Amino acid sequence: MTETVLPSFLRFREEGLIIGRILAGYGELEFEMCDCVFAINNDLDSSIRQLFGRRGELRRIKIAEELMKAQYEAAGLAAPHRAIMEDMDWCRQVRNQYAHCNWYDRENEGLCFIDLEATAKRTITNATSLIERRHRIDVPLLTEQEAFFLRPLIESGLEELQIMLSDYRKKCHNLASTIRLMAVHCQGKRATASTSAAL
Length: 199
Fold this sequence. Notes:
Layout: H1 8-11, H2 13-41, H3 44-52, H4 57-74, H5 78-99, E1 102-106, E2 110-114, H6 116-119, H7 127-131, E3 135-137, H8 139-148, H9 151-154, H10 158-198
Antiparallel strand pairs: 1-2, 2-3
Helix pairs in contact: 2-3, 2-4, 2-5, 2-8, 2-10, 4-5
């Protein structure tokens, strides 16, 4: 058997593969979120610096939400924007749960993990009380969680939000162009009327 720091994932390969995709895939969600900010300010360098200049997944979500909020509200997209950011936060919690836990497996239990950060907030008297706080994990649950990770991307998600904002901006641009043309037309009419009156 290949030596690894996490032998449980060799014994539970399918679970390990899904968990690996969840952990690695979260970065892709953050990049899409950054792209939404870029769609707002049209400044990629600033978008990356604002979101990734300092570490902290929750911090990035809050900054992105604040940067995007006004424009998406103006476009009538406040509800989908809020829902997508809530989905992002749930994905963050799932990712962090697996990134900051310890894994073990037993033949009669399957694959389990212990969230030591959550456990540290409670009183632990012995090893038994520690094990009591374990969580069993299986392929169906992990598959469901991985599928949820697609929501911020494809189910009226971050990419769709960018498209809707782009459509809104095109409408605004077309409306502004129409207003400018009408203004020029009206000015021309006023000028013609003034000339006629002078004659």
